[in-house]
Amino acid sequence: MTLAALLSHWARNKMQLAMLLAGLTLATALWSGVQALNAQARGAYATAAALVSEDGAARLDTPSGQMPQSRFVALRRSGLMVSPVVEGRVVLGDTRVTLLGIEPLTAPPGTAAALADGDLQGFVAGGGFAHPETLAEIGPSDLALTPSQAVPVGVVLVDIGTAQTQLGMAGQISHLMLTGPAPRPLPEGLRLSQADAGAELDGLTDSFHLNLTAFGALAFAVGLFIVHSAVGLAFEQRRGLFRTLRSLGVSLRALTFALALELALMALIAGLAGLALGYVMAAALLPDVAATLRGLYGAPVPGSLQFSPVWALAGLAMAFAGAVLAGGQALWRLWHMPVLAPAQPRAWAIASGRAMRWQVMGALGLGVVAVVLAFTGSGLFAGFALLAAALLAAALLTPAVLALCLQGAARFARAPVVQWFWADSRQNLPRLSLALMALMLALAANIGVGTMVASFRATFIGWLDQRLVAEMTVTPRDAAQAVALESFLMPRTDAVLPLRRVDATLAGQPGAVFAMRDHATFRDNWPLIQAAPDPWDRLAAEQGALINEQLARRAGLWPGDSVVLPGAGAVSVLGVYPDYGNPLAQAIITEGWFDRLYPGTPTRQLAIRTDNPEATRAALLDEFGLSAQAITDQAQAKALSLAIFERTFLITGALNVLTLSVAALALFATLVTLSGLRLVQLAPLWAMGLTLRQLARLELARALVLAGLTMGLALPVGLMLAQVLLAVINVQAFGWRLPLQVFPADWARLALWAGLAMFAAAAWPAWRLWRAGGGPLLRVFAYER
Amino acid sequence: MTLLALEDIHKSFASAEGPVPVLQGVSLTVAGGEVVALTGESGSGKSTLLHIAAGLEAPDAGRVLVGGQDMAALPDTGRAKLRRGTVGLVFQQFNLVPSLSVGANLAFQARLAGGHDAAFCTQLAARLGLSDLVARYPEQLSGGQQQRVAIGRALAARPKVLLADEPTGNLDEATGDAVFALMLELARAQGAALLLVTHSARLAGRCDRVVHLRAGRLA
Ligand SMILES: Nc1ncnc2c1ncn2[C@@H]1O[C@H](COP(=O)(O)OP(=O)(O)O)[C@@H](O)[C@H]1O
Ligand SMILES: [Mg+2]
């Protein structure tokens, strides 16, 4: 009965109901969509880990990441339960995949299961298995590949012989899988490591997922702003009804219960709709996210989404939590309202004035927290806490700052209508403030993330130009061919710079040591962020190593410090170079020293400096019968790197647009809800000789002015956000720090969007005011509302 | 000189049972300096007639002449201009601009019309007992105080035609009488045509003429 009376309000205010549901739905959708993406990726890592090893199984490997196959034969003969693995990245068809070569007879059951339904003959004869999605990406290729759901996306499972041929590792294997107990003591030169590929990927991609989660939380918060304002307004409008019900004998408890029930009902409806929408959104975004994770980290994430009930329940719980958060205040106020509280409009104003004071105080408190975090915090979590505190502080401050602006403008106004315009905007601010906060947050997020990405892009492109100076690179088939290629190319080109590396743990982090030839190409172009005096001469003199920025920042190693390299002990750091897009630690030493430390390490690639890349390419193809894929020219390499870069931030762009749309919706909801109230405020002006068209135009102008002011406010907040992202979050998450660059053209575009969003939100109420004619306004005067 | 002329005004409103006639041929003229009281039962159409006279609403048939100008012949902007400069309106409720102070409200229409006279405004505020309230906002005033501000605002613009819908309905008898006297005095002094709706036979008796609206016609 009580509930029916309460619900009747929504029947008359359908728009308000729609907004409330839309807000909660969107909030839930954005949050649960992001969670679905994260869960999907994490699940994929685990699948990948299970394929290459039994749970937690160990492996035997060498620091160079390679060992002769004869080693396996010898160990197996001695009774050790091991199985050989050849692993590497290779271009197949149209894409780059991880080629995983196994030996089917000795492989552990987990891996063998992937083959169970396949035909072993074909496999050993050069066939392979891959996920259907991987197959689609590869397109036509020389390998006979069979689809299999058991193989992670981005991985091609082949026989060990096939892998050796494809990867140029004839007679070599990458490591040994232990299928039995670990030997004690370990065989000479081998080390035992936990082949927990899943955990490794988890570590690397954590930052990416944290970024996504932060974005999801932001969108959720923006959505809650809508719900909060809709619930608050509905509460205000129903004050009279509450009073009537209570004076009719409905107990406070029953009324509260009915309101809570109403809220729960909405949470359920919106939660279910949000889940559906979130699922659709995640399914639409997953291909991009998966491509990013594969491109950046080689993480095997499939591009299609699976449904999980746990995820659905968590999403619903989030919708309920959101409803409670947004509606709690209204319920609390109900408890504290005297039965016959007069429905005075002034009370609203006083309450909102007090609210503004509280907001400013809250903002100052959060600001202090942010400053403290900025100076004392460390770690990714502290970085995000800093962001959250600063953003929330800025959002809370928004109404007060806007109020000051409007008051200032009113002081300068001369014409009566202009004066009224500012005073009226100021007076209506409290009712709009939640929506404006949401808009401010969305705009600041757009500016911040946009500036971060654009700054990164500018730096990245400049860096690519320096790093990719070699006109072309060649990937030899095997070690012998590498030697032949080098002697073939030496006289025909300006320089041949071989690339050799061994995997290594550097300062406790996964990484690699690289060999660098002492050559003008590097001396002239290789960018260094910090360097000791004469770094290149000292590098050539085997006096130290160069390390990448990731390693330097994570381990706190800078020129003058020393880093431990496997087999070489502590080596002094001569310089730090930027190394964007690579999640792993790196150290570079001069070629001669490298070869003595890690003898027999094969050359993986040859970088070639030449004035005539076309002729060199032709010669290579003719003389060596290299496949066209083995030769990459500079332009291709740049295009590939840039493509990976763009994909990395595609998802960010999509989430930006979504957040802005949510804010626009919040504005629309609020303006529509307020339009009834506006009539009372506008009617006297109409009676005094302003036309409806003028009034409608003023309403639109007000919306645009507010959007402009909000944008002006969002700009410094967004730049602050960008600075934190670049100087704190990126450093923590990726290990590199970038200079902030500003792109005013982007701001102009965003301001235009904000204006459009605001215009779209205000247009309908304004149009309705104009088209409806004087009737509704006359009813105001006739006291018939 | 006739400042307000209503000629054979017809108006009906749509309802579920078809159109309900409210005004069925109302004709009325008010000359400059003349004060006419409009009486009638609740729901007889007094407010509707005032709205039509002010150009806020269009009649179904008939002509409205304000200062000799035919309302129907004017575009929307022209009617708005008449409301701004020639007509003064006082309604039963919700007269004031909530975001402006009492002082700003008092001066608002005069400034809109371009005839603001600060000294006159101050004098009006004093005579309406509003001097201490000019810095307040409408929502901080009682209903009666708000009504006095609305009357002051209409008078401050020195309109040629003053239309008031139960202007003293919210006032106690003494204040009502005083405010009523002020309206009469200023309308006469400014040579304005004053048409006011009242339920009080006593106040109606102090006007130059009383017209009674019944069954859609004036008696
Ligand atoms: N916009 C409208 N739509 C429908 N009916 C209306 C409208 N305005 C007034 N009425 C009706 O017209 C009649 C006269 O109203 P009104 O002029 O306000 O009377 P009064 O002011 O004399 O009390 C009433 O029955 C009222 O319900
Ligand atoms: Mg009336």
Write up what this structure looks like:
Chain B: Pfam families: ABC_tran. Chain B: InterPro entries: AAA+_ATPase, ABC_transporter-like_ATP-bd, ABC_transporter-like_CS, ABC_transpr_LolD-like, MacB-like_ATP-bd, P-loop_NTPase. The complex is a heterodimer of chains A (785) and B (219). With 785 residues, chain A is an alpha+beta fold. Chain A folds into four domains: 1-52 and 206-343, no CATH class; 54-180 and 190-195, no CATH class; 347-363 and 423-468 and 635-785, no CATH class; 472-609, no CATH class. Chain A is built from 24 helices and 20 strands. In chain A, strands 11, 12, 13, 14, 15, 16, 17, 18, 19 and 20 form a ten-stranded mixed beta sheet that branches. An eight-stranded mixed beta sheet of chain A has the order 6-5-7-4-3-9-1-10, with helices on both faces. In chain A, strands 2-8 form a two-stranded antiparallel sheet. In chain A, strand 12 and strand 13 (509-516) form a beta hairpin. In chain A, helix 8 runs antiparallel to helix 14 and helix 14 (416-467) packs parallel to helix 22 (692-733). Chain A is elongated. The two termini of chain A are 26 Å apart. The relative contact order of chain A is 0.11. The model of chain A has no long low-confidence stretch (mean pLDDT 80). In chain B, the strands form two sheets. In chain B, strands 6-7-8-3-9-10 form a six-stranded mixed beta sheet, sandwiched between helices. A four-stranded antiparallel beta sheet of chain B has the order 2-1-4-5, covered by helices on one side. Chain B is globular, with a radius of gyration of 17 Å. Chain B is an alpha/beta fold. Chain B has a single domain (2-218), classed as Rossmann fold, CATH 3.40.50. At the A-B interface, helix 12, helix 14, helix 21, helix 22 and helix 24 of A face helix 2 and helix 3 of B. Bound molecules: adenosine-5'-diphosphate and magnesium ion. Magnesium ion binds at residues 46-47, 165 of chain B. The site of magnesium ion (MG) has 3 residues of chain B, from helix 1.
